[in-house]
Structure formats: structure tokens, C-alpha cells
Amino acid sequence: MHFVYRLLALYGSAIILMFFSEFLFVNEGMVAILIGKLQINLALAIGELFILSTYYALFTFPFLALLSHYKVNTLLGLFLAGAIFGWAAEALVVPAVYEGVPYSFVWTSISWHPLIDVLVGWYFVRLVMRNKNVLWNLTMFIALGGFWAIWATWYWTGESGGSFEIITPSEFSIFAYATGIFWIVGMVIADNFGRGGFYPTKWEVSFVALVAVVAFSITALPFLPISLSLLPFIALTVFALYKGRDVTGELTIDANLDEARPEWWKYVLALLTPLTATLIYPWLFEMQLRIPTEDIILVVMLIAVATFVRAIVKPFRLKKRP
């Protein structure tokens, strides 16, 4: 794969992961900044999205490289690669992973990021788009939009009847369509330039590794020595990916996505996600219905920890094919 193709493949996947990580999640800081810029100047908002996607390219690089290098062909392996992405997103540029140890090692690093960003957003959505069943695609995009609208209510601070910091329906509509279209563009790029796996050169790996080490050192320095406790988890995860490489002889995750490209109208159908979200959100806003965030986070964390433990243990118990 030519360097330009690899770069486009990286950015395509980075945009997909960024959408699910920042915008479907409705990350308070970035969402407020983006809505503000969308209301002032579209060019400013596009510039913000490009800058953010460049950061996410740094986080996405090890995820794609590990996925292809170790020929990951199981969902558990994909989860582990997603955990590496999650830790990169929460530890390299922002210190979120160090600010509430051990809770922060799990949420959102190995919970939302691997489960939602990677398994759902990067893999399952794109896999369903390769299925010719129109009903499956319609259902998926509508359900995704409904989830987006419901989850967005976590952004409201305070209890019912108290003081809220709320995204208005008009603000949410601008935000949902802008980020939704950017997500679709990312899928088009990833599907057209990400075929054949992601195999960077040694120079590219060295450059990204150097940037990552510098970023990690700067971000983690104020949190020493607790920040160093993340490194054994990263090492164990990479070693588990190594042990689990090509265990079953089945198609790799990359190959599953390479078997076909979605028809062009599937990307048009993806607009149902922001459309559905913008239809449901005003009703939730009017009724002041807020998702029970704490309960859901606890459930997701328990699922994530159980999945992580199983994903780590399983490669050491499986026998290689003769």
C-alpha cells in the first residue's frame, strides 16, 4: 500500500473512531467547542474537525497496526486492539486515564472505546453495511440515531428540577448533521483506501512511536509514579495479541471488511442516524427525560472488565493449528 493510501486509510478509521468517541458519546468539552464554531463559521468547525482527527490518527495508528500485524481474527482480539486505542486516546494527549485510578483505567479506556468505538462503530456498522439486506441497514442506522439522542441527555448536569447545562434541540441538530456527515466521509475513505490491511513501514512506526513517547512523557509526568502503572497493562495486552495471532485460521478482521465494499446508497442511508437523533432529541428535551448514566456506566464497566479478562486469558489457553 502506497504511503498516501496508508495515510488516507488511517484518517478514515480515525474519523470513524473519533465520531463514536467524541460525538456519539457527546464529550462535553469538544462538543461545546464544536457547536460554538458551527454557529460562528463552518470553516472554523471543519478546521477543528481536521485538527481533532489528526490527534485521533495518532491514537488509531497502533490499533490498525496491531490488528494487521498480529492478523487478529476474533472479536476478543479486536477488543484488545481497541483497548490499546482507548488507552492511547485517554493517556497520550489528555491525562484522563490517570485522574481516577483504578476507575479511569476502565472508564472510558477499556469500556466505551473498545465496545462502542471499535466493536460497534468501526466494525459491526461497517460489516452490516456490506450486507445487502436493506432492512438490516435501515434498522441499524435508525437504532444508532435513537441511541445517540438518548445518550446525549447525559450531558445535562444536575437532577430533575435543578440547574441544567443543556444542548438545545437546534444546537443538537446542527451538531448531529455536521458530525454525522463527517463520520460518513470517514467511512467512505476507510472503505476505499483501507483494503488489504494496515502495514506501515519501519520509518513510519518509528516516527509515530517517537511522537507517542514524547506525548506520553509530557502528559504522564505530573502523575508519576501512578502513570507508570498503565504500562504493564499495555504490555500484557500486546503480548496477548501476540499469543492469539492467527489462532483459528479464519478470515482476519481486516479480510472480513475487505470482502466487499458497501453500495453507495448505504452511505446515504447512514444519514438516518443524525436524522433519527434530531427527531427524538427534542421530545426528550421537552419531557426532560434523562438517561440514568451512573447505572449504565456501571453495567458497561462490568461487561468491559469481564471481556478484557477473558480476552487476555483465552490466547494462553488455545492451541495453535498444526
User: What is the subunit arrangement here?
Assistant: single chain
What's the helical proportion of residues?
A: over 70%
Provide the gyration radius in Å: 19 Å
The H/E string reads HHHHHHHHHHHHHH
Total domain modules: 1
How far is the N terminus from the C terminus? Answer: 31 Å
Unreliable stretches, pLDDT < 50, 5 or more residues?
Answer: 158-164
Count of distinct strands: 0
**Per the principal axes of the C-alpha atoms, what is the gross shape?**
globular
Largest sheet: none
Q: Helix count, per DSSP?
A: 14
Whole-number average pLDDT? 92
Strand content: under 5%
**Strand pairing plus helix content: what structural class?**
mainly alpha
Describe the protein's topology.
Layout lengths: L2 H21 L4 H13 L1 H28 L5 H17 L11 H4 L5 H18 L4 H18 L17 H25 L8 H19 L9 H14 L9 H6 L5 H6 L2 H16 L5 H25 L5
Kindly describe this structure:
There is one protein chain. With 322 residues, the protein is mainly alpha-helical. It has one domain. It has helices spanning 3-23, 28-40, 42-69, 75-91, 103-106, 112-129, 134-151, 169-193, 202-220, 230-243, 253-258, 264-269, 272-287, 293-317. Helix 1 packs across helix 3 (42-69), helix 1 (3-23) crosses helix 6 (112-129) and helix 3 (42-69) packs across helix 4. It is globular, with a radius of gyration of 19 Å. Mean pLDDT is 92; it is low at 158-164.
